[in-house]
Amino acid sequence: MSTLEIKGLHVEIEGKEILKGVDLTINTNEIHAVMGPNGTGKSTLASAIMGHPKYEVTAGTVTLDGEDVLAMEVDERAQAGLFLGMQYPSEIAGVTNADFLRSAINAKREEGQEISLMKFIRELDGKMELLEMDQDMAQRYLNEGFSGGEKKRNEILQLMMLKPKFAILDEIDSGLDIDALKVVSKGINEMRGEGFGCLIITHYQRLLNYITPDKVHVMMQGRVVKSGGPELAQKLEAQGYDWIKEELGIEDETVGQEA
Ligand SMILES: Nc1ncnc2c1ncn2[C@@H]1O[C@H](COP(=O)(O)OP(=O)(O)O)[C@@H](O)[C@H]1O
Ligand SMILES: [Mg+2]
Predict the structure, then answer these.
(1) What is the pLDDT of residues 216-240, one digit of tens each?
(2) CB 162, CB 108: distance < 8 Å
């Protein structure tokens, strides 16, 4: 079993404190959901874990099986087994999807242990079929001209091909129609198991109709303010977030503006 542990994480962007002490522990074989209204720091958490240069960690720790993730370069974080599915995946002209995936897989392997072309193609075909993606998507430039739904499927394709220990999926459900949502869920559920842990960041409960999380956390004001089981997500769907604000005695759930 592997463990990703976030403790007392404080993060600033351009001198403004966005995360104010996030605590969260995920084990492999677990799927956690982080929910919360807009502007509460969810994407900041994802970016900080992956090492986006704009996000400055001012206190706290992130460890993967005890190893200091924050001391690693971004590519070392990927090597160590972290994967970030982005809210807005970037387009890379001139690099085909298949070439990108094969390089990414090989970058995680020792020299001489590269995946064979045959094995790679067989695996890619299988996963693309499961995700109901057109075969020609493999030869298109990465994310270039992909629709919103195609980009999200492609993030899941990357996830399935790279097989990270932990995936952080930021708003993977945003902009998806119901069919795409089901396909994306199928991919994530397929990954579910011993060597895999997942943090699903979402604004809405609907994705969690297809992927039952082991734990649900609510973020407000740059912290995890409440944790529970899948029933917590259902309560949020039915009642919104106001009851939590009342419970906590807060008026503004966002990270807040500087005075
Ligand atoms: N790159 C950035 N530069 C300046 N402020 C940012 C940046 N990214 C996020 N913020 C601010 O941090 C707060 C939290 O944003 P974010 O983490 O994206 O929230 P969420 O994902 O929960 O909607 C917001 O007030 C937002 O304006
Ligand atoms: Mg966000």
Answers:
(1) 999 999 999 999 999 999 999 899 9
(2) yes
